[in-house]
Amino acid sequence: MLNSSIPTIPYAEFYITNVCNLNCDNCNRLNNFYFSGHQLWKDYSEIYKAWGEKLNIQKISILGGEPLLNPSIIEWMSGLRKIWPTSTMEVASNGTRINFVNGLYENLLENRIELRISAHNKQRRKEIIQLVNNNFLKSPISKKYSGDFSNWIIGAYNKVKDESWPNCQTIEDFYHLSLHIQKECKDIHKIDPENYLEETSKLILLDKNKVKVSVDYSENFATAPLLYNKNAPFTVYNSDPAEAHKVCISKYCPHFIKGKFYKCHHVALLPEFMQQFSVDISDENKELLNSYQPLTLASSDHTIREFIADIRNEIPQCKLCPSEQKVHYFQSDTNKIKIIKRKNKHEVQKIR
Fold first, then answer.
1. CA separation for the pair 65, 37 (Å, rounded)
2. What is the Cα Rg of the chain in Å?
3. What predicted TM-score, i.e. pTM, was given to this entire model?
4. Residues forming beta bridges with residue 348, ordered by sequence position
């Protein structure tokens, strides 16, 4: 039961590692570069226990980087569940490491945690779904697709519909059509809801023990919050803060990072990124970045409530992010890039 005497927030992300085994262009947490560093549960457990006395959280997402690469991921899952026993909870993963974490299935079951997998290309999605079905979840396994795809089926069906065919308003309607109509749609017109759903929508799998795994597919990200030019240092944007905030895809995703609570993950991660990489940033912008004040355990109750009331509004540091968002398509691989400075010359290191 929620503690009614303390503030409640609908959602918070717990960022626990910079490390990822994939390289996805325009990753908005910069994990496509050789960004190192884990946060171990033992170093922050007492801090988060204290946060549990200050904040209710309706939904928690544990992420990175790739959270299953954090050596204390099981402790993170169990620890956060004990602190927020009634919260909806998920682990956001790329799915490639699910059989490398001892006790992962048992922990998901015991702590009622969903494994939410984002598979970043079609072939990997198929491989991960097969892996989850055959080697992770326990049979029997039910499956369903999330989302309303009525517009797709109506549009595709109406383009080829014969006058004698009945109307088709939903995917369910499609499966009530005569078999010869379904066959013509699939074989001749390539209208196959099952294939369409398999390739484009979130698949939700639920096994006999009610362990839940969802597999989403995405081959694109929005513009990353840091400019990268080959063989040159990284650079920040110089945007109108209001315009940058307007198009921000993360403004509804406040973050706990190293025991502190941020409206924006970028203001937390960029200073750490700058310790590992060469970033071309002016003294003025560096001062602006460092001036950001996250919530800490030392924050007063009044400050915490003010922060939460204002949590979705812009901050001056929004100017360091893009004011225009584009869709960037990619096929993820495992090459990593690190740019360092040696004797006034920037050097690109490519690391597998």
1. 10
2. 23
3. 0.89
4. 339
Does domain 8-146+202-224+234-335 fall under CATH 3.40.1130? My reply is no
Burial (CB < 10 A; 0-12, 13-18, 19+), residue 147, is exposed
140 cis-preceded (ω within 30 degrees of 0): yes
Residue 171 — pLDDT band, cuts 50, 70, 90? confident
**pLDDT class of 275 with cuts at 50, 70, 90:** very high
Residue 352 has pLDDT above 60, yes or no: no
Which ranges in 142-253 belong to alpha helices (H)? 150-160, 171-174, 179-187, 193-200, 241-247
Domains in the chain: boundaries: 8-146+202-224+234-335, 147-198
Instruction: Report the alpha-carbon distance of residue 324 to residue 317 in Å, rounded.
Output: 16
| Residue 332 DSSP symbol | -
Tokens of residue 328, six digits: 């960037």
Q: How far apart are CA 147 and CA 280, in angstroms?
A: 42
CA distance 33 to 337: 5
Query: For residue 287, what are the CA distances in angstroms to 206, 257, 270, 273, 312?
Result: 49, 20, 13, 16, 23
Number of H helices and E strands in the chain, helices first, is 12, 15
Cα–Cα distance list, 245 to 49, 267, 290 (Å)? 32, 13, 19
What is the DSSP track for 170-197?
A: SHHHHTTS-HHHHHHHHHTS---HHHHH
Provide the pLDDT for residue 240: 97
- C-alpha distances (whole Å) from 351 to each of 13, 136, 327 are 28, 31, 26
Residue 342 in this model has a pLDDT that exceeds 70 = no
The dihedral through the CA atoms of 203, 95, 45, 307 has a sign that is negative
pLDDT average, residue stretch 202-217: 94
Closest CA to 321 of 260, 280, 264, 273: 264
